User: Fold this.
Amino acid sequence: MTQPRRPLPDTERLDWLRLIRSENVGPVTFHRLIERYGTARAALDALPELARRGGRAKPLRIAAKAEVERELTALRRAGGRMLCACEPDYPVPLAAVDDAPPVVSVLGHAHLLARRSVALVGARNASLNGRKFAERLARDLGEAGFLVVSGLARGIDTAAHLGSLSSGTAAVLAGGIDVVYPPENEGLYRDILDQGVAVAESAFGTQPQARHFPRRNRLISGLSLGVVVVEAALKSGSLITARMALEQGREVMAVPGSPLEPRSHGPNDLIRQGATLVEGADDVIRALEALSPPSASEPPGSVFGAVRMAEPEESVLRSARAVILENLGPTPIGIDELVRGCQLSAPVVLTVVLELELAGRALRLPGNQICLI
Assistant:
């Protein structure tokens, strides 16, 4: 049974941070570990043996207590907070996402994250008209009471933050919460900390890398009731955000444009596939007003209590490992499909998959899928 959301004591917060900063522990794996072992401390104790059973030869790197204490100290000195997914102040829509980050760093006015939010994203090399439209749309949505969420990138993101600065805007960073990218948005970042809020999943001081941006994009959509794409090429990060929004059950909206403009091909294609056409803030408000905010009263796949699930017998696991490895490959397969195909119980399959993940032999993908590395 899912436990009520509750503030964590400092010792438990350190354990949460150690667990998510440990090698091969991603958000979904973290939640599976908490579900199985009840507490982060118990999960930390179990990591070495799980990785060994998964076939790992060298020791798993587990984040040291001193390492995470330095991170928390640096964040607090910067005036920030760390929110864990089980805590009352953690954004409710984000907590409802399957791969919700177990911990996020927050700088600025964290209370803004309790407001109904809408994301505005688009091209970095946006046109002047696109930037003007995004700024006006963000301003109108802010005046209507929405928190406008974007990624602090050049182009449409910058325009969205500028338009909603006075009413409340949230910048989601790809690297650490103290690392501004692109550098020319340093001034905007400072203004956001004064009047809005910044959110990051990566550790304090982390320099953003290419692999961080898709993770950042899922936070942008996860914090929001819906995502508006203003300008975007057919293959762009903004369309990745739109796809993630669909997977998270969020509303996807798009601003149409000329078929002669490559930056309009992405939004036009989204509209062709059923996205809500947006010509102004009223279109966004109408699309969102009938939606119920995602609920985090029962976070998917996470138990935040201290009740430990029974672990399958080793004799059962021993025979199951060969069957599961035989059915896995480099092509992703859904966990449910793996359970059916192997004709094994879900707890057995989930335990073996967890072992393989921690050993670095398997990778969990969006949509509850798994593949061998």
